[in-house]
Specification:
The protein is of the alpha+beta class and about 160 residues long. It has five helices and nine strands, in the order H-E-H-E-E-E-E-H-E-E-H-H-E-E. It is globular, with a radius of gyration of 18 Å. The N terminus is likely disordered.
Length: about 160
């Protein structure tokens, strides 16, 4: 099957990003060496928000070469009788900008907290005040976005692009 046959639309790819608990982000350091790390991101419109320590390999890569590739994989299921795995995935490529304005950082942290820790929103102000200065925030613009899936219907046949279950 050609790759094109498995490519899905933009709405599908965004849905994969929105439900992913974690993603993998690939970067290049100042010496041109690759670096890849799992991260917890959240989508805010046409950007992904990333929090990080102020210093470290990830922050250094993003500052030196502010362009990344992010992958998200969801709803995987091994299909042993077909020697394959059902999956859905999204790939984002885009430029990165560091957020330095304290209010914009706070707003980004609120979005992250709402996504990953909604039961602790009442503690947000207290916790953020203590960590704002030591937390870096980066925004990744979704410049390129693709989504793919491999899924089988109840009849055991692979569902083509646009086919429903």
């Amino acid at each position: 099957m050609r790759r094109k046959d498995r490519e899905m639309g933009r709405a599908f790819a965004l849905s994969v990003l929105d439900k992913a608990q974690w993603m993998t982000m690939a970067m290049v350091d100042g010496a041109g060496m690759p670096y890849c790390v799992p991260v917890s991101l959240v989508r805010d419109g046409e950007e992904l928000i990333l929090h990080s320590a102020m210093e470290g390999e990830k922050a250094s890569c993003l500052r030196v070469r502010p362009w990344v590739c992010v992958t998200a994989v969801g709803d995987t299921h091994v299909v042993p009788e077909e020697y394959t795995t059902e999956y859905e995935s999204a790939v984002v490529r885009g430029p990165v900008r560091e957020v330095t304005d304290p209010e914009e950082k706070r707003a980004a942290l609120w979005i992250l907290t709402k996504r990953y820790c909604p039961e602790h929103l009442g503690q947000f102000d207290r916790l953020v005040e203590g960590s704002l200065k030591r937390t870096a925030i980066f925004r990744i613009t979704i410049a390129e976005l693709t989504g793919k899936r491999k899924k089988y219907g109840k009849d055991g046949k692979e569902l083509k692009y646009g086919a429903e279950e």
